[in-house]
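Quick review question:
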């Protein structure tokens, strides 16, 4: 139930729709109750229970104790006043009244649903948007602990589960309780004894239904978790299909998927069979209550004589009218238990703390003036430090290259300067300002990033490049492509810069994709460039073209180059050699070669590759 209250918070922006829904439901419930009460004078006419010779006068209200006889006499008085003691005319009047009451009931029922559509769909939209926004705000460290498929399942399946399980309960909050309240009032007016008898049995049926749904949340949670696992396997399969086929691992992955699908099958069977039990159980209990009511009510009519037949028939209609919302409420509570598991999984993302959140008075930096300083920094992803007491100063306009074997901490520097992670010890300063004191958006505005894997999106070349500069003109885009040595192939494409490059840019070669990612960084035009092994995945010809593009891009900019191929960084102002997270050598290419140390060994090793 706590999760349901959390979901209700998202309904606050839609108060006016909620108000329209509540008002419509009040009128729906009122006219619904009155429509059954209007049956009494019609039944009296049909069964001729009134003495035709009796002159009917306007009744006088004598207090709540005589309310039962007053409302019946008042209805009879109004009918006879209109019909002038003509039974056929009276019947036509009563039938017309019933039609009008049911029409009004259904009009307001529709209006209640009309307002609820906006409220419910608005909550779903806002919830999905909030989960997605939080997903892109969370640091990369969060996703290293999570499966992508499970995150996708929460944003899609779990939100959909809420839409069709928990959120429909919003419709019940006002309608069904109001229907019950108005119906109970009318039932009490007709017969206090019979109403008290009814309320002995309804709670008993409610207890039985609640026991049926007791374990539903646990079963629902299992189903949703397994759906996340299925999505994870599917995502991994589509991403690694080339490797799966290349290693003849189709059967292995097929079995893995079948196992997860089998678990989902068993969990779903248990969940849906428990759901299916709710309807027949509640229906049988409803019929049981009605049957007992018929027996006891019949005693009051035939033996006790405290209730007339027409009132009893109308009362049975009201009793049925109360069973429908009672069953809906029971079903709603049942659905809340099912939706609770989905809500918890969604809320888990929303409530996840973001350790990289901006400080309350974060500084907005608009330019880069002097230097970048890594001041005695240490960092670990898990247990072991990957950087230890690392210190480095990069003056504005200089190119610094970081080299070393895999795992030496090179790419970690790129993750820290961009604040994808925060240092454990020490500080990173830009113009003597700790980057943790800067607004993250303003920090990243100063940085252009080109990664080893050219990450492009299923869109046009133009829109991929405009990611960092949304206001760029076509001329500026073409100029950036020329700087990145990419215009030579883009101009020959069918639609030029408007050409769609497919999922992850799969319509292009590796070198073409990398040059587009360089063009994207050029178009952003930041003062600091971070190049994370931008040429390591390319063939020799592509590397040559990309290297020319990189050299064009780095002119008049401060650059941090993380290099695997050492031939690409020989002209760097300073080369930093890392080993196990520590600086072991630094200097220019010629100096390091002359020193005949670690760097020279790395160069010699690559010369034989």
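Suggested answer, residue by residue:
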């Amino acid at each position: 139930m706590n999760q349901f209250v959390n979901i209700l918070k998202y309904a606050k922006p839609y108060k006016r729709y909620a108000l329209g829904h509540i008002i419509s439901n009040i009128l729906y419930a009122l006219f619904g109750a009155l429509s059954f009460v209007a049956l009494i004078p019609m039944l009296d006419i049909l069964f001729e229970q009134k003495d035709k010779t009796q002159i009917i006068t306007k009744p006088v209200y004598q207090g709540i104790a005589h309310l039962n006889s007053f409302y019946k006499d008042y209805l009879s008085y109004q009918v006879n006043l209109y019909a002038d003691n003509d039974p056929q005319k009276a019947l036509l009047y009563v039938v017309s009244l019933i039609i009008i009451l049911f029409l009004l009931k259904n009009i307001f029922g529709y209006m209640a649903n009309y307002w609820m559509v906006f409220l419910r769909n608005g909550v779903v939209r806002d919830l999905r948007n909030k989960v997605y926004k939080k997903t892109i705000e969370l640091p990369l460290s969060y996703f290293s602990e999570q499966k992508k498929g499970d995150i996708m399942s929460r944003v899609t399946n779990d939100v959909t589960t809420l839409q069709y399980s928990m959120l429909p309960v919003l419709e019940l909050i006002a309608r069904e309780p109001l229907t019950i309240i108005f119906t109970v009032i009318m039932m009490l007016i007709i017969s206090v004894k019979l109403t008290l008898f009814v309320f002995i049995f309804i709670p008993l049926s409610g207890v039985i239904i609640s026991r049926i749904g007791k374990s539903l949340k646990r079963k629902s949670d299992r189903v949703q978790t397994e759906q996340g696992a299925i999505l994870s396997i599917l995502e991994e399969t589509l991403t690694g299909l080339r490797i799966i086929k290349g290693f003849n691992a189709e059967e292995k992955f097929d079995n893995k998927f079948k196992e997860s699908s089998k678990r989902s099958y068993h969990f779903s069977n248990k969940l849906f069979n428990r759901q299916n039990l709710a309807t027949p159980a509640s229906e049988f209990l409803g019929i049981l209550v009605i049957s007992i009511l018929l027996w006891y009510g019949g005693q009051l009519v035939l033996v006790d004589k405290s209730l007339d037949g027409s009132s009893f028939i109308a009362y049975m209609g009201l009793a049925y009218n109360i069973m429908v919302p009672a069953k809906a409420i029971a079903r709603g509570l049942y659905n809340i238990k099912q939706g609770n598991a989905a809500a918890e999984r969604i809320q888990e993302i929303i409530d996840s703390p973001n350790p990289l959140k901006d400080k309350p008075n974060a500084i907005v930096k608009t330019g880069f003036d002097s230097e970048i300083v890594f001041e005695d920094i240490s960092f670990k992803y898990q247990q072991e430090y990957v950087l230890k007491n690392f210190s480095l100063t990069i003056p504005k306009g200089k190119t610094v290259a970081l080299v070393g074997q895999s795992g030496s901490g090179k790419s970690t520097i790129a993750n820290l300067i961009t604040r994808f992670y925060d240092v454990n010890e020490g500080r990173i300063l830009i113009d003597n300002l700790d980057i943790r004191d800067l607004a993250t958006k303003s920090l990243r505005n100063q940085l252009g990033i080109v990664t080893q894997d050219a990450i492009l999106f299923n869109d046009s070349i133009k829109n991929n490049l405009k990611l960092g500069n949304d206001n760029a003109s076509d001329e500026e885009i073409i100029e950036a492509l020329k700087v990145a040595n990419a215009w030579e192939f883009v101009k020959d494409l069918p639609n030029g810069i408007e050409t769609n490059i497919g999922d992850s840019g799969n319509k292009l070669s590796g070198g073409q994709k990398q040059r587009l990612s360089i063009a994207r960084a050029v178009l952003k035009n930041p003062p600091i460039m971070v190049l994370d092994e931008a040429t390591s995945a390319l063939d020799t010809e592509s590397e040559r073209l990309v290297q020319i593009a990189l050299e064009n891009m780095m002119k008049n900019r401060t650059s941090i180059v993380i290099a695997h191929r050492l031939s690409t960084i020989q002209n760097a102002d300073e080369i930093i050699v890392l080993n196990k997270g520590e600086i072991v050598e630094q200097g220019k290419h010629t100096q390091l070669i002359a020193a005949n140390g670690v760097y020279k060994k790395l160069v010699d090793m690559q010369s034989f590759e």
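Why it works: The longest helix spans residues 250-304. The mean pLDDT is 79.
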